[in-house]
Amino acid sequence: MYDAIIVGLGPAGSTAMESLAAAGWRVLGLDQADFPRPKVCAGCLSLKLDKVLAPGFHSVVERTVRGMTLSYRGERSFHFRAARPLGYMTMRERFDAYLLEAALRRGGEARTGERVLRVREAADAIVVTTRGHDYEGRFLIAADGAASTVARQLGRRRERQVALALESEVAVGKPRLGALGDEVRIEFGTIPFGCAWVFPKADHVSVGVGGLKGRIGSLKAYYTSYVSRERLAAASLLRNRGGWAIPLHPRRGAQFGTRRCLFTGDAAELVDPFIGEGIYYAVRSGQLAADSLLGATEDAAALVRYEAALRRELCPELAWARRVATFFYSFPKLAYRVLTENEAVRASALAVLRGDERYRAVWLEFRRQAGRALLQWMRPRRTRPARRLSFPGNGSGSHAWLGGYDDETAPQSANFQQSVPGRWVPPLGGNHLSGGVPLPPAAKVGVGGATHRGRRENGRAPAEQRQDLPFWQHSRYRHQDARR
Ligand SMILES: Cc1cc2nc3c(=O)[nH]c(=O)nc-3n(C[C@H](O)[C@H](O)[C@H](O)COP(=O)(O)OP(=O)(O)OC[C@H]3O[C@@H](n4cnc5c(N)ncnc54)[C@H](O)[C@@H]3O)c2cc1C
Questions:
Q1: Model-level pTM greater than 0.85?
Q2: What are the strands, taking DSSP E only, across 219-329?
Q3: What is the pLDDT of residues 107-118, one digit of tens each?
Q4: Cα-to-centroid distance, 246 and ligand 1 (Å)
Q5: What distance in Å separates the CA atoms of residue 476 and residue 296, rounded to the nearest whole number?
Q6: What residues flank ligand 1, with Cβ below 6 Å?
Q7: Whether residue 368 is found in the same domain as residue 413
């Protein structure tokens, strides 16, 4: 009998195996795939991993991210660079193989290419059945990912909130790769409750789209239009990774195991609902599961210890991330403005990305600034002076902040990539949008709090313009309807 069996040898399974084997436990790891195996993933590693993994994982990091270009529906680009890294880019086949090798070096035993079909929990052991084999262990760790066979068989409820994502690896020419350099591109607003991204790797880019299941229609259609907007349609496809589910951390009722089995990583729905980050949570939950088994004085105590550790360390953060996600994706236009225009929000978001700050800070800052922005929007337009259109708390003045900036140095408006005026109708008028840069006449409608007097914006009638706005702004057009 093994001390522990681990099903799934992704980041959660391998790190759990490494910790248990290092403590002298007899551990068996099973995975249906042969390693190195491909995995549908954008491969962005959080800097938080530096705190929980040995530095050796940097050997499989292909790029260190230092910049970001955000956009809203392909427009309103916001670009910035940071002096300190924001994340690491890897290819999952390399990263996961590295983690597995580290676990094997510690004395773990792995059988790959062996799919687990059944799991049965008895009073004093747990039996895992693959094709042709039965393995018996005192404990089991479920690390078999989003569609976890183990968790389902041991009674976990079906995931209630799942994001669906589609991803490809695309070859781009050297000039394009060089232009991207160490920066990622992320687009919000097009995909309901989701986003699209281009992440640079050593010799190609990973391109993907993802959104909440039930809110998105055809991911493929979003992918196709995003790829053409990013001018990647003509680039050659290296690998179409296809679609995959991302089990987002639930609001309540998360299940983390049974008496003899602990669920980890995606199998425990430990994914950040805001940015879809799951690798760090997989690694850390694998480590916490191993620690809980090692520290349990009796079998029944393992789950209690594990749940306590998760609720102390990971769940609060994921719960705050959920609040941010709910706000951000419910009001993407407002939230995008708050994120890109307010220095305090941006600074706390960056600190969270780096693991220096908790999501709670972002949430509180978001709520405060969004509340102020909403109040401004709802004030009568005629009485609002143009000067008050900028966000409060924005230390860099009313215009300069719109330029791309380095979060550790002064704003540099030269980096600002002005978006093409089109569907974006500035809710507060064009003045703050332009960042001091003169806008074309069509985009100037509404500058300085002027009301819309039935004018055509970007060649479209007011009724059409209104469709682009959130419901609370429809009143801006009421007086026009009345006159007609
Ligand atoms: C498109 C996409 C992009 C993403 N981008 C990022 C990102 O940039 N950064 C980030 O942090 N997270 C990202 N994620 C989330 C991240 O990929 C997961 O959270 C992470 O892989 C979870 O690790 P895990 O060890 O729990 O499971 P996995 O990595 O999924 O590993 C599960 C393992 O279990 C094995 N397995 C499954 N079923 C069985 C079975 N029945 N028998 C035996 N073996 C089995 C599989 O072969 C696999 O090796 C992304 C996800 C998707 C879908």
A1: no
A2: 236-247, 261-263
A3: 999 999 999 999
A4: 8
A5: 63
A6: 7-13, 30-33, 39-44, 115-116, 143-145, 149, 165, 167, 208, 210, 244, 246, 265-267, 271, 276-280, 282
A7: yes
